[in-house]
Amino acid sequence: MDHGDGKTLATGSRLTDGIAARWFQALYETPLLLSGILDARGTVLDANRQSIEGCGLVRERILGRPFWEGGWWSPDPELSAQVRCWCEQTVRTGVPLRTVSRYHLADGTRRMVDLAIFPVTDDAGAVAYLAATGSDITDALVTQRARDERAAVQTEALHRVAETREREFRRVQEAERRAEARLHQLVTVALALLSAESVEDLTSIVVDRSMPVLGADGGAVVVRESDGGLRVVVSGRFGERTRAAYRSLPPDSPLPACHTARTGDPVLLPTRAAGLAFTPGMADVYAATRRDAWAFLPLRVGARLLGSLAVSWREEREFSSDELTMLEAFAAQCAQALDRIQHLSAQRESALAAQRLSETLQRSLLTQPPTPDSLDIAVRYQPAAHEAQVGGDWYDAFVTSTGATMLVVGDVTGHDQIAVAAMGQIRNVLRGLAYDSDGGPAALLGRLDRALRGLRVGALASAVLARVEPAVTVDGRDVRRLCWSNAGHPPPLLRRPDGTVEVLTSRGLMLGVQPGVGRTEQVLDVPEGSTLLLYTDGLVERRDITLDEGIDRLAGLFGAVGAGHPEQVCDAVLAAVPVDHEDDIALLVVRCCP
């Protein structure tokens, strides 16, 4: 970059002394800023033209004299003393000071300045100079004052307008309050309907709680049943005998509630005469309910007719248009709530049937364990507390063709019938691979992983596979060789005869993640009297603790109860599980008997 003086300044380099001096001089002499330099005693060493000549002052009377004695402040002794205090404070504290102050021009005109006094320190950190700068803000303050005055005038005008509107509002306030009360009651009923889970709830909310809106005295909800019959839920404002008498009506009943539920036509009976003219059967209704005026409205959602809403009054009446509008609104809310209740009921029944089917299928696959010589085996399966939650947890125990006992506990990801089906496939494939094989658990899990990929069983599962060999005598005592491999599953627990519990940790990928990956296995000699516990994560996972904490708790419990028979151990372990546990639990306990 060429600056015209024959010198070139590269981009990013520092300014030359000459340029820096000119730049400082231009900033210092700007007409937008009053600027001066003082020594530590407050003596004015220099000031720009705007601050002296621009204020009509004489430079010779400013330079070399204390800052507070300059013509800006000296016409007002109190102001001059204040400026002196500001300078001394800045020197003493070393903290910059900024304030708004009045000042004077040479002709005595008073102005306002945004004043700042900055300390400048030497190499030792002591304040050596003061830099005083100021911006004249008189015009801005005047403008702001004018704006404030205009705003005050506008505010007063608005206040008068508001008072006028308030008087107008008061003339209609009472009518609006009544309408608001009705609307509030309607909203309250609509919100309450969200909690209704049965037709009885719906009747209590819509009929009993909404009656004050219309001044009505009772009613009923008539529901069309899937078998063609009509179910009547009568308001609690009527006696039990009345509710029992009209609990169920034939679809061809001539009563107006049934007529509306059957045809979708509303019926208004403002008098007894109108009701008896509609059907003589209304005589019994009048006698049982002691209500002389009735309104029957259809409960309809789209093209579906769900039933009817009946509302009654003690005395005969004429229905106004507002009342009919409100009745129609109640009927629409009731219909929406009834439709939701029926859908939820159907969904619950469907989910319960699916859950029962899945659980039956799962239990049919979880067969009783074998009873090999000198091994006591007990198993348990406990579904999740939530009815719709059926998972792919499984256990299995069987004796191979070589006499070894294979133990497995696993968990297929998911909580649905697909997970149950995948569990059955994985369990059966593993049985087929392991029965006539003398391979170790790691090799079998590897073969199982490859087989699942080849058979296109698209599921992820965790599992622990253990092989228990028949007992042999070593150094005069019977021991069994235990070999196990883990595929991403919680570790088994081994309780020795002395009550100590060992967590059989091992690591490996879940089945279905990376078929063909190398797997490891561990081998341990287990003395007679030991108990082995295999389980799924539903036994140890809780929202309020980590998985490791859950395993530690289980190990402590197992150490206390593990000396009993495996059946007793299973019962004791499951007894400690919260009633509302969120996952299935599969449990397998094996005890090596002498």
From TrEMBL:
InterPro entries from the UniProt entry: Bact_Sigma-Reg, GAF, GAF-like_dom_sf, PAS, PAS-assoc_C, PAS-like_dom_sf, PAS_4, PPM-type-like_dom_sf
A Pfam match: PAS_4
Keyword entries, A-Z: Hydrolase
Domain PAC: 93-149
NCBIfam families: sensory_box (TIGR00229)
PANTHER family per record: STAGE II SPORULATION PROTEIN E, STAGE II SPORULATION PROTEIN E-RELATED
Protein name (Swiss-Prot/TrEMBL): SpoIIE family protein phosphatase
Organism this protein belongs to: Micromonospora echinofusca
